[in-house]
TrEMBL record:
<keyword id="KW-0472">Membrane</keyword>
<keyword id="KW-0812">Transmembrane</keyword>
<keyword id="KW-1133">Transmembrane helix</keyword>
<feature type="domain" description="Glycoside hydrolase family 9">
    <location>
        <begin position="110"/>
        <end position="517"/>
    </location>
</feature>
<dbReference type="Pfam" id="PF00759">
    <property type="entry name" value="Glyco_hydro_9"/>
</dbReference>
<dbReference type="GO" id="GO:0008810">
    <property type="term" value="F:cellulase activity"/>
</dbReference>
<dbReference type="InterPro" id="IPR008928">
    <property type="entry name" value="6-hairpin_glycosidase_sf"/>
</dbReference>
<dbReference type="InterPro" id="IPR012341">
    <property type="entry name" value="6hp_glycosidase-like_sf"/>
</dbReference>
<keyword id="KW-0326">Glycosidase</keyword>
<keyword id="KW-0624">Polysaccharide degradation</keyword>
<keyword id="KW-0136">Cellulose degradation</keyword>
<dbReference type="InterPro" id="IPR018221">
    <property type="entry name" value="Glyco_hydro_9_His_AS"/>
</dbReference>
<keyword id="KW-0119">Carbohydrate metabolism</keyword>
<dbReference type="InterPro" id="IPR001701">
    <property type="entry name" value="Glyco_hydro_9"/>
</dbReference>
<dbReference type="GO" id="GO:0030245">
    <property type="term" value="P:cellulose catabolic process"/>
</dbReference>
<feature type="transmembrane region" description="Helical">
    <location>
        <begin position="72"/>
        <end position="94"/>
    </location>
</feature>
<keyword id="KW-0378">Hydrolase</keyword>
Length: 523
């Protein structure tokens, strides 16, 4: 009997009990010993051929598979017990005697960087902080979020601040939770090996607990979700305090923070569904919480499909800071995660619908941003995710045509990351310019490195040594080399010899753009 889940975990085989050759051999031997012996055989077994008539018979012990002299048996058992007690005594002494253990090997640079990078989320927490948060300059903040808005009147305490300010944007926050969950699903053992599994799961739950507050997560059908807490637009002057005009620590904010809701926001709803669905896989061992996440994800995805529209209308705060250009990519991305979380083919049918792929931009190969994975464009990530499905589960008709398309497009995206194809420029220091020289390039760089590394692992797990770029075959090591080169750039292998991860390396930014730090100084 085979058990299979849609995530493509290991197949479990449960065979009916059956005797092995060794079992049958032992049964035959036992049968030979148990059959009736004739007088001569009994005499030989019990007294031996050299015994004289009238001699006192020896006592024997029948073990089933052999017959032993009782004295020999008792002596043997006593010797074994004595040796066992002696060995146990020696081991007890060894355990009690103090001794030094060799120190564990120092962590590699990627492990150290991951420790530091995860602390970013600790620094971004909003609401009542746990005692073990580990960031000395952060405290409880914005404890009246939602309650101070007269139109909402419900607690929206918690979640994560966006960056250096104190606004809570659900759109990029949800995407961050999806990505954290994806990394845990694929690399749980590695997180556990470096002692970060509990930490990263705690961070994910901090985010998903907040997202569950932003809509009616106990209902099967919803008509609104919270898009944002706080305001950042300063173009209208400072008549009303907001999170950009008033530069202060979140712990000191005492002004009301408005809440923005949306009633037709397919992109936001589908991304939030993806976040909750992915997290439900992370927490699958906690059935109650996992089921709660799945139920919320179903309501969100349903809402997004029924109430079509972008969450960021022109002129809104969302459009200024995190504008969404389309919701079709979120339909594919969210549908894929919903399928993996539930196993319901309805979601896979949505994610692999030919029209959906077309609207999401799967065929826009000439677009300058094709293959750039961001919080706004989820298609490259969705294609890698669905390539995983094809490589490991191969669901076949009627999904195969689009899955093959996504798989081929993923190959094309990986080709575009290689310098020899000139799809993107590279700086003199070796950084790929996925956003074509515009500001804040590193977010795109690390996203590409993640996809390249993950896809190479998928290929290896599927016993596929590489992929083709036209007629040229490249091994998976080429992808890993690209991923390492970009990550190394971020960690200090760049013209400035500077690490861009705060706290990592000998030279890193000391005055981060973060209002919660004292005088902007990161300790």
């Amino acid at each position: 009997m085979f058990g299979r889940d849609p995530w493509g975990g290991p197949l479990e085989i449960s065979n009916a009990d059956s005797a092995t050759d060794d079992d049958r051999s032992r049964d035959l031997d036992r049968g030979a010993l148990m059959r009736q012996l004739d007088e001569t055989q009994q005499s030989w077994l019990l007294a031996g051929p050299g015994d004289q008539a009238g001699k006192k018979k020896k006592k024997y012990v029948d073990l089933g598979c052999m017959v032993l002299d009782r004295k020999i048996f008792m002596w043997t058992v006593g010797t074994i017990l004595g040796v066992g007690l002696f060995i146990g005594f020696v081991m007890m002494i060894v355990k009690l005697v103090p001794h030094k253990r060799p120190p564990p090997p120092p962590p590699d640079q990627y492990t150290q960087a991951l420790h530091k990078a995860l602390m970013f989320f600790n620094a971004q927490r909003s609401g009542p902080l746990p005692k073990h948060n580990g960031v000395s300059w952060r405290g409880n903040s914005c404890m009246k979020d939602g309650l101070s808005d007269s139109t909402v009147r419900k607690s929206l305490v918690g979640g994560f601040y966006d960056a250096g300010d104190a606004i809570k944007f659900n759109y990029p926050m949800a995407w961050s939770m999806t990505m954290l969950s994806w990394s845990v699903i694929e690399y749980k053992a590695k997180y556990e090996a470096i002692g970060e599994l509990d930490h990263v799961k705690e961070l994910i739950k901090w985010g998903t607990d907040y997202l569950l507050k932003t809509f009616n997560s106990s209902a099967d059908t919803i008509d609104r979700i919270v898009a944002q807490v706080g305001v950042g637009d300063t173009s209208k002057g400072g008549a009303q305090p907001n999170d950009h005009y008033c530069w202060m620590r979140p712990e000191d904010i005492d002004y009301p923070r408005p809440v923005t809701e949306c009633h037709s926001c397919s992109d936001l709803a589908s991304e939030m569904a993806a976040a909750l669905a992915a997290a439900s896989i992370v927490f699958k061992d906690s059935k109650t919480y996992s089921d709660k996440l799945v139920r919320g994800a179903k309501a969100l995805y349903k809402f997004g499909r029924l109430q079509r529209g972008r969450y960021s209308p022109n002129g809104s705060d969302q459009a200024i800071f995190y504008n969404s250009t389309s919701y079709w990519d979120e339909f594919v991305w969210g549908g894929a995660w919903m399928y993996f979380a539930t196993g319901n083919n309805t979601y896979l049918s949505v994610a692999t619908a030919p029209g959906m792929a077309k609207h999401a931009g799967a065929y826009w190969l000439d677009s300058p941003n094709y293959g750039v994975f961001t919080w706004d464009d989820k298609l490259p990530g969705a294609q890698v995710l669905l390539s995983r499905l094809r490589l490991f589960l191969s669901p076949g008709y009627p999904y195969e045509e689009i899955l093959r398309t996504f798989h081929n497009q993923t190959d094309n995206v990986m080709c575009s990351y290689l310098p020899m194809y000139n799809s993107f420029n590279f700086t003199k220091g070796g950084m790929i310019q996925l956003n074509h020289g515009r500001p804040q390039p590193l977010q795109y760089v690390v996203n590409a490195a993640f996809l390249a590394s993950l896809y190479s692992d998928y290929l290896d797990a599927a016993d596929t040594p590489g992929w083709y770029c036209g007629p040229t075959f490249y091994t998976t090591e080429v992808l890993r080399k690209f991923a390492r080169s970009q990550l190394d750039y971020v960690l200090g292998k760049n013209p400035l010899k500077m690490s861009y991860v705060v706290g990592f390396g000998n030279k890193y930014p000391k005055r981060a753009h973060h209002r919660a730090t004292l005088q902007g100084h990161v300790h």
